[in-house]
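Propose amino acids for all 161 sites.
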């Protein structure tokens, strides 16, 4: 009986420890839905995640991504130009992500990196909306990274606790 409980506890910690992982999706991924206007695709920079980028200068342009997970990150390079993407997570107030390099040398100056993170979220469906920051000419989408919570672990946790 004790052996059984110890086995379950051990399994719980093992399963729990590998339960979360970061998944990065490229701007070309079908899971990101581009609507309302022209988004141009660019494939010319090694500083972009997977070498690709979507960009727009249209106020109506919208990119939407829905996921079930416990965090989301916005990934992008930085430029010497005025570029800013507005990000809205669920019904939270939108945030403007300034993608201008404070110390530019080339037109695209800094390789892709995590620019913004949501902090911990409940493991439910969330929607991210990306658009142009009002008053700034260009907005871009390079990649999104989100934290996938293993459903086996969720099931295991609800069953054992
Ligand atoms: C995901 O990546 C972020 C940013 O690099 C990091 O802070 C976080 O610990 C990672 N989470 C997991 C579960 O790997
Ligand atoms: C990388 O971009 C190409 C298009 O240039 C796309 O076909 C491919 O699926 C992308 N790879 C990943 C891992 O998203
Ligand atoms: C964005 O960042 C750049 C570089 O630090 C700065 O010069 C610019 O004023 C910022 N733009 C806004 C709208 O905050
Ligand atoms: C500017 O970009 C070129 C080509 O991508 C690269 O070879 C060069 O090192 C960059 N210059 C600086 C100062 O980063
Ligand atoms: C969450 O999103 C997925 C994929 O869009 C969908 O299949 C599922 O029904 C959604 N679940 C809830 C609880 O809204």
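Proposal:
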């Amino acid at each position: 009986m004790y052996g059984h409980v110890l086995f379950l506890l051990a399994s719980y910690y093992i399963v729990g420890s590998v339960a979360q992982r970061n998944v990065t999706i490229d701007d070309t991924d079908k899971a990101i839905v581009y609507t309302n206007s022209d988004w141009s695709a660019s494939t010319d920079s090694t500083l972009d995640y997977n070498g690709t980028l979507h960009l727009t200068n249209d106020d109506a342009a919208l990119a939407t991504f829905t996921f079930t997970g416990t965090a989301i990150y916005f990934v992008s390079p930085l430029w010497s130009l005025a570029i800013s993407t507005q990000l809205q997570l669920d019904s939270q107030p939108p945030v403007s992500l300034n993608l201008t390099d404070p110390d530019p040398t080339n037109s695209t100056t800094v390789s892709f990196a995590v620019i913004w993170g949501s902090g911990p979220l409940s493991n439910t469906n969330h929607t991210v909306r990306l658009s142009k920051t009002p008053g700034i000419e260009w907005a871009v989408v390079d990649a999104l990274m989100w934290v996938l919570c293993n459903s086996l672990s969720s099931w295991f946790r609800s069953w054992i606790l």
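The chain has a mean pLDDT of 86. The pocket of 2-acetamido-2-deoxy-beta-D-glucopyranose (ligand 3) is lined by residues 98, 100, 102 (CB under 6 Å).
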